[in-house]
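OsmC-like protein, Marinomonas aquimarina. Tokens?
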Amino acid sequence: MKTSVVWQEDVHFTAETGTGFKVEIDGNQTAGPRPMELILAGLGGCTSYDVVNILKKARQDVVSCVAHIDADRADSVPSVFTEIRVHFVVTGRKMKESHVARAVKLSAEEYCSASLMLERGGVNIVHSYEVIEVE
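Tokens:
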């Protein structure tokens, strides 16, 4: 896996992934997200991918899965994440809460590389969920 990051000006950079996607990164948040926001977005994408796939394999009728993520950072430099909270809102038809709980737990403890990497680095990650039934 490769990515290149090219400085544009001031605190604005353009990242290009090995698969050819470009992301603007900007410390001033005028041209794109800040780098630490992208870490949270990566975590959210990684764990959401797991949760949805696990639920689909369990034959759950998932309509929507939203991960709301918020984090605390250290007050001093380096201002690393100290705690991250991931709250899933999973919407579906005739969903079994036990399957959602299992999917979230498996992602957090076994599958999500981003989550496991951050936790091994000392970040406390708290996962929660709610299930919304639709017809």
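The longest strand covers residues 61-73.
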